[in-house]
Amino acid sequence: MTLRTESLGKQYGEGTWGVRDVTLELEEGIHGLLGPNGSGKSTLMGILSTILKPTTGTATWNGTDIVESPGTVRSVLGYLPQDFGVYPDLTVTEFLEYMAALRGLDSETASARIDELLELTNLTGVRTRKLETFSGGMRQRVGIAQALLNDPELLVVDEPTVGLDPEERVRLRSALANTATDRVVVLSTHIVPDVEATANEIAILDDGRLLTHATVDELIDRVAETVYECVVPRSELSTLADQYQVCSTVQRSDGVKARVLGESPPTETAAQVPATLEDAYLETVERPH
Ligand SMILES: Nc1ncnc2c1ncn2[C@@H]1O[C@H](COP(=O)(O)OP(=O)(O)OP(=O)(O)O)[C@@H](O)[C@H]1O
User: Fold this and answer.
1) Which stretch of DSSP H or E encloses residue 102?
2) What is the model's pLDDT at position 162?
3) What is the mean pLDDT of the chain?
4) pLDDT per residue over 131-142, tens digit each?
5) CATH architecture, range 3-220
6) Does the global pTM surpass 0.80?
7) What's the CA-to-centroid distance between 24 and ligand 1, angstroms?
8) Backbone φ, ψ for residue 64 (5° rounding)
9) Domain definitions of the chain by residue range
10) Ligand 1 pocket by C-beta < 6 Å: which residues?
């Protein structure tokens, strides 16, 4: 299974380019699509899900053009868009039965599949509860379950953790990790930890452009031995930020503890620390491009 884009671009009207010149190859596994707000993630997901048409370039599924023949990918697609609506008066099981019927699954196949998906998304214990009683995280897991009803070869999930509390995010991540067998999963987010533990590969977008596409380890290796932590007086923080890229700061009684990227130690007492994906992400999007 291969999803491939070649010089893909999408211009909205005569104005903004949502994505430009994106060339990307995705095979089985989870691919995290990371980028700040407005970087083009939803635009790219929309094109891959065949609900948006590119202005330039091509996208293919196993070699077939998905713009010319959208049916090729639609028949193997599971899609969870950013704003996903559920029906509050239905129970989880009723909702999934309804969605399965709309997709033409017979009731026996649907029933077995729903049992399996409720287990996968950890919703078996609440299957008879109405959706109106669900938290945002539970609702997103129902969304994942409905996107998997037809056992899709391509699963596209747009910013599934927005608005969820940390515990719900962890549960949703583990549900997504369970879905990755034998399919291409594309998961967009602007929250690095959401993809750090689950994604095999990460593509980073900014301003509509693909900045990099690599494994988590490759990305971390690129900033290895360039990450330092140091404590500076509050008054010196802006000087530090002029010279080094400051990834994060923590206020302390003796000043500000800063996490910094640089080729050399930023202060005499700075300690080199192991790099993380967050450091690699910040270095990639902050680098001039
Ligand atoms: N329908 C539209 N009409 C005009 N411009 C649009 C439209 N949709 C998106 N854009 C613009 O295209 C660019 C990419 O937006 P997109 O929604 O794809 O980014 P994103 O990374 O998904 O952002 P977010 O995380 O905020 O959803 C932005 O500049 C956005 O303002």
Assistant:
1) helix 92-102
2) 79
3) 92
4) 999 988 888 889
5) 3-Layer(aba) Sandwich (3.40)
6) yes
7) 19
8) -95, 135
9) 3-220, 225-273
10) 12, 16, 18, 35, 37-43, 190
